[in-house]
Amino acid sequence: MVAQALSIEDRLAINDLFIRYATSMDNGDVEGVVGCYTEDAVLLGSATGDHRGHQAIRAFATRYANFHASGAQLRHFITNIIVTPEEGGAKVTAYLLTGYTQDGQHERLRPGHYICHVVKTEGEWLFKSRFVAQDSPMGLNVK
């Protein structure tokens, strides 16, 4: 079966999903991060680990929220978003740049990319799966 073309509105909503995710992470908004995923979503990556479902994704986001609460500031920059319709949703790839500031020190983390599968659930686009690949190991140690 051939995947249907996506409307401009759907493409904008998918782009907004990435923005919601990035700003939620950067602001330490745990429930905002969790709300970007389906209940059974999978988040994988060398820097992120293996997280399956809302409870595991909530634990992942909480680690970063604690980092934020300690005075550190992350900034996710997501670019070159490519949306490809597929059966049941869309495949989305994007580049990732992340910077962080802590104690007056600024660092740019290793660049990377996302490979995601998104689905439209009750009128809202959500991550069904996200794979995060850094171009080399990251130096940020978030506990």
Which key features would you list for this structure?
143 residues, alpha+beta, Nuclear Transport Factor 2, Chain: A, 7-stranded mixed sheet, globular
Description:
The protein has 143 residues and is an alpha+beta fold. The chain has a single domain (8-134), classed as Nuclear Transport Factor 2, Chain: A. Helices cover 29% and strands 46% of the residues. It has helices at residues 8-27, 30-34, 53-69, and strands at residues 37-45, 49-52, 73-86, 89-102, 105-108, 112-121, 124-134. Strands 1, 2, 3, 4, 5, 6 and 7 form a 7-stranded mixed β-sheet that branches.
The poorly predicted ranges are none
Spatial separation of the terminal alpha carbons: 44 Å
Please report the total strand number as a whole number.
7
Provide the gyration radius in Å: 15 Å
CATH architectural grouping: Roll
Helix content: 25-40%
Per DSSP, the total helix count is 3
The level-1 CATH class: Alpha Beta
The computed structural class is alpha+beta
Q: Could you tell me the CATH topology label.
A: Nuclear Transport Factor 2, Chain: A
Principal-axes shape call:
globular
Write down the domain tally: 1
Strand portion: over 45%
Sketch the topology as an H/E string, one letter per element.
HHEEHEEEEE
Q: How many strands, what sense, and barrel or not for the largest sheet?
A: 7 strands, mixed
